[in-house]
Design goal:
Layout lengths: L7 E4 L5 H12 L3 E6 L3 H13 L4 E5 L5 H15 L4 E4 L14 H29 L2 E6 L3 H4 L5 H20 L5 E8 L5 H4 L17 H13 L7 E4 L7
The chain binds NADP nicotinamide-adenine-dinucleotide phosphate.
NADP nicotinamide-adenine-dinucleotide phosphate binds next to helix 1, strand 2 and helix 7.
Length: about 240
């Protein structure tokens, strides 16, 4: 399948976990892919090597997506190396599991800045080009935490609920510009984020097991291909939360 041929995708936090699977799935569907990372250059380069092995273009770009100057440089680098960005997957995120009374102000700020402000910064930087070209896909990684409270804490749940509001605002603002904006609310997907969290147990999941990163990547590809779905939150959660 090459329906995304000639499209350029940027996946934030594409070096590991869900983001790595998303980057590879978009490349399989035909896209050239920029793989953003913050610290793990080797992991990002390995994802790019796998994509290059498929005959697709890929570039690893270091940037802290919570920092506006990093975001501007990242987008300029991607556009210089791959071309204009058609598909943005706002995936980068952190989780510091804490009880409500343990969350410090600094932790609250860090989680909100990396998980939520980053989505605003990257989207704001990329959206102008999408509007000019009258085509774009923005896919934001929320969480079941926005719907149920989840297994991380209030700071994380609030950041992921904020992403849903941001998704609705952007979806309605750009609905006449050929741009769709949707969110995915996963739980619990077997990545470093989940296996390092003592509160994240498969017993929370009605299906009785963690999901795979491919369970999320396939939904990202579906959203990238779909023209008529916007402003939605797609729950991929083994039955934890049903709308
Ligand atoms: P993960 O395995 O911990 O990977 C996190 C990724 O984000 C890494 O690529 C990391 O880069 C990158 N990252 C973190 N902070 C960054 C920053 N400031 N700037 C740029 N990149 C940054 O996490 P995951 O489980 O794949 O989660 C991916 C997304 O899905 C997150 O937004 C998470 O909240 C969301 N989510 C996950 C689950 C789940 O069950 N796993 C459920 C709901 C939602 P480095 O490799 O360089 O550190």
């Amino acid at each position: 399948m090459e329906d995304l041929k000639n499209r350029v995708a940027l996946v934030t936090g594409g070096s590991r976990g869900i983001g790595a699977a998303v980057a590879i799935a978009l490349a399989k569907a035909g896209a050239a892919v920029a793989v953003n990372y913050r610290e793990r250059a080797d992991a990002a380069n390995a994802v790019c090597a796998e994509i290059a092995g498929m005959g697709r273009k890929a570039v690893a770009v270091r940037a802290d997506v919570s920092v506006a100057t990093d975001v501007k440089r990242m987008v300029a680098e991607v556009e210089a190396q791959l071309g204009a960005i058609d598909i943005l997957v706002n995936n980068a995120g952190i989780a510091h599991p804490r009880k409500m009374d343990e969350i410090t102000e600094a932790e609250w700020d860090e989680v909100l800045t990396i998980n939520l402000k980053s989505v605003f910064l990257v989207t704001q930087t990329v959206i102008g080009g999408m509007r000019q070209r009258k085509w774009g896909r923005v896919i934001n990684m929320s969480s079941v935490a926005a719907q149920t409270g989840g297994a991380v804490g209030a700071h994380y749940a609030a950041s992921k609920a904020g992403i849903i509001g941001l998704t609705h605002s952007c979806a309605s603002s750009f609905v006449r510009d050929g741009i769709t904006v949707n969110a995915i609310a996963p739980a619990l997907i077997e990545t470093d984020m989940v296996t390092s969290n003592p509160n994240a147990s498969p017993t929370l999941i009605p299906m009785g097991h963690f999901g795979s990163t491919d369970d999320i990547a396939s939904v990202v590809v579906m959203l990238a291909l779909n023209d008529y779905m916007t402003g939605q939150t797609i729950s991929v959660n083994g039955g934890w939360y049903m709308t």
